[in-house]
Amino acid sequence: MSSRAKSLTKMTIIFMSFAIIFGFRNIVNNQNQFGFLACILFLVGGAIYAIPMVLITAEFGSVKKLKDQEAGLGSFCVFALGERGGFLASWSSYFGNLFFFATLAPFTIIALSYGFYGKNGFDELTQTFVDKNMLSTDDSARTSACILALFAIILFWAGTYISKKGPKWLGYVTNIGGTASLILGVLFILFALFYTLPVHGIQSDFRGVQDLDAVNSESFEGDWWAFMSAFPWLLFGYNGIETISVFIKDTKNGVKAFKIASIIGMSIVVGLMVVGSLVLTLTISQKQITDWKIPNADFLVFPYMIGLDEHSAGGKAIIHIAGLVTALNGIGSLFFWTAAPTKVFFSETPKNVMGKWLSKTDEYGMPHNALLAQAIVVTVILAVVGVTSTASDPNATTNIESSSKFLMKSIDATTTLAIVQMFYYFWGYIRFRWKMDDTERGTRFFKNKVFPIIICSVTLVILTVAFFFGCIPSPKSWSKDPGQAAIDFLFIFGGCVFFMAAGMLAYWFNVDRKARKSISVDNGNSSDEISEIGARNSSNNNSSQKAASKEAVEQ
């Protein structure tokens, strides 16, 4: 194993799981879409996706042949699928995350606004511009979005600075963020169970078993295709543990400690997701969350649950607290995601495939130059998101929402890459257990290889379903507006193809092409050497023949 200092404890890994994977925001968003069914889907997802992913990650991390690697998704897939497969898995993971920052960083800023101001200050700013006739509705929304993007850029650069400090600094931040996340989730559940439900009872819109029919709810309106395209993303809310694996070498007591801590952390996360979704369904209706709008609902649920008006002194105080705690969780999550995918990608890709300058790493495997380049790219993305934002309803004068078509389309195009990376990951594990099960390692998912292969095969089916329904618009979309449906298909599927083709081109240009050129040069050198040897032999033969003729003449 590496001789570098091990600075992360089991508790750090547990809190890192909270900060990176658990989010009250996930509970609210999925309850808004799936209602009562969300808690069941969270439970199923935990059993067939989240916990197996922890065990797979720990097993890969314990492979003796990988002791000198960074133990991330890239090195796992290189080992199981070959160099090209490992590179493409890391490539899809990394570029999918770049646009994720364009939602996480602004959300964290909005949480800070609720924490210090008690409201979404950017919505208020938009409304002020409109009320005072300073700008049109569209320009008001765009200006507010640009200011939000500016603060998000500043926060992201702060995360980049922390990331360059290495895993110890990240451990401090994620400990704080993970603690905040745990406190927020536990408090919500405790208040709901011991106050809201006993005092106020179950909310009037709850219909029991009938609410399990999410397809015919207001969210999907009978569009089963839309439901199938949305359902897998609930499972992907558990993604993150495969990225945390890059810190196995920084964990005290190694892979066994990491395995124990990550299983504990993920189990608690699954439990909080299930119970939190259940109590949210019982206390607050989907319609109420829709009326609040995402992301405001993430903060307004707390005073509502306690029975306080959001404008009352008590309600405002609770909103401030919820905003601050959510912001701490968001900061921990953002700073981690700033560092980990970059570390996975640039420290584990084949040598020089992304260039020497970007691939240069420090003693912790952290690529400083790549972090700077990433910050510049994310800055451009956030700036473009701000500039391209418009009002959802240009004629609205109140409750104005802003949106960026650029961001929405970009996320649609890159979220499919999240499926691709996990397809490589689970297929790599299946191949590892099927073809290389005698490989020396410290821990196993399950001793008998049949059970984990079956679990991973089920996951691959889910991933295939997610990709198919996620890329192809629903029949309702085609019948309503065939032109727009065709554009959406080309953008989503074409975007995925474009990013993967760019990765293949980068690999060919910097690896395959140079390797073939090197072989060609070596063959050329060999031919020259053969010719030279042949010339020497011919010269020697001529000399021998001349000497023999001379002897014959003398005789």
UniProtKB/TrEMBL annotation:
Key words of the record: Cell membrane, Membrane, Transmembrane, Transmembrane helix, Transport
Q: What is its main location?
A: membrane
> What's a Pfam family this protein contains?
AA_permease_2
Per the record, what is one GO cellular component? plasma membrane
Membrane topology value? Multi-pass membrane protein
Its localization reads: Cell membrane
Q: Name one GO molecular function term.
A: transmembrane transporter activity
In the record, what lineage is assigned to the organism producing the protein?
Answer: Bacteria, Bacillati, Mycoplasmatota, Mollicutes, Entomoplasmatales
Top-rank taxon:
Bacteria
- The record's region (Disordered) falls at 520-555
Its source organism is: Spiroplasma helicoides
Specify the protein name: Amino acid permease family protein
Instruction: State which residue ranges cross the membrane.
Output: 12-28, 34-58, 94-117, 141-162, 169-195, 224-248, 260-284, 317-337, 370-391, 411-430, 450-469, 489-509
